Description:
Helix content is about 20%, strand content about 20%. The chain is of the alpha+beta class. The protein has one domain (about 20-395): Double-stranded beta-helix (4-Layer Sandwich).
Amino acid sequence: MAQAKGCTRLKLSGALDKFSYEETTPITGREYLDVNIVDDLINAENADDLLRDLAITISTRGVVFFRSQTNLTNELQKELVHRLGQLAGKPAESSVHTFPLAPAYVPEGGTADRQISYVNSVGFKYMFDKMPNMDKRRFDAAEWHTDIQFEPVPADYTSLRVIKLPETGGDTLWASGYELYNRLSGPYRDFVDRLTVTCRADCVLMAIRNRGEKIEDGERGNPLNLGTALTAVHPVVRTNPVTGWRSVFALGQFSKRINEVNPIESEELLKKFYNMIQDNHDLQCRFKWRNPHDIAIWDNRSVFHRATFDYMDLGERSGNRAVGIGEVPFFDPESKSKAEAEGKEKPKSQVPTKDAVNGNGKAPTTGCHGMPMGGNNHHDMAMGQGHNGMAMAGHGH
């Protein structure tokens, strides 16, 4: 079994240094002030340098925010997430995620586009009309999750641009998977580093069952993202190929079962990770959408997010989401925690580790950059996360 090459963290060029920003919290989040993504980044002469540094910054800070991007179209939004992934070294066969179901809701004047998911309060109400037995109280605060975790090759960068805003409410929260891992003890890390998690999109099954829909044919952003299995197996701890840092990845509604332990232990582990986010609000940040066309861009490999559905009687909230596809998730035993990489903790002694494994228990065939990192035989469909007008099973932004 081949072992993964060590991760070399991508280095910033300094191209973004001329732009002002504020850190949202000490641990996660950054808001760039007075930057126009189209004019200042995408169309700049040194666009590749700027966007590569932006990708590294997003992977380092977890999520980055820009205000009032009124000239950013859907096509440019898709191009943006794809170029971020390309410039950060994602596999050539990965592109933009294609939604597996036909759009349940398209805003007036909008165009049906399976690479753009419409996050819309009207579609949210449509969902409850179609699924009357679902408990609305469960959706007041959508569960923590990472996008399309149930795909064999899940998301790298997601962008969400909110077009219409309610009077107030509808904030989105992010939480750092790096910091979650930092707060585990050395022996506990040694244990969870070896584990894998089964991820499944139960919400899609519910949509198919209740709405009588079927999955659209074709690849969903990568040749491995095919079929209707709705299931993928990934490492519990994932190495981010951009930073080389370890992050807890087995968290949220899609994470169903830790495979190497018994069902009771699996439930305990998943609850532990979830409760660590709930009980440690300092590893979270909260973003208030203030203006039409505010946008958030985040790295799904190392942050989790959740919506707040507290605005249903306060006006329409709608946004457009585009999701880039990254690499097959992997764990590299040569990678480090963020705290260790930054010199904030001494290297911890490790029990002898197995070869680096991906979700199949097989060794990745390449190093951090230029994945794929070995095959995942589970073909999957993805949906979810409260998009396409259906804040499905607690997923949302």
